Amino acid sequence: MKEMGTPEVRTDTRLNKAVWAKGTRNVPYRMCVRLSRKRNENEDSPNKLYMLVPIYLSPLSKIYRQLLWVRTNCEIKV
Length: 78
Description:
Helix content: 10-25%
CATH architecture: Roll
Strand content: 15-25%
Structural class: alpha+beta
């Protein structure tokens, strides 16, 4: 990413699952994400920083409300 100054970009697994939740034909047009730069723990890497892209679940977003509804209304059977 040119603006953040880091060539290495890592997407969160929850973001990937949210993008592909409805399949390949019904991909969402917009999603809220947060971009953050983190220090690279791998000392062998030529890049000191990497960019992490997790999904941002605001209380007003539809995905957040659906997750809340599932947690409150569905019983987990063991």
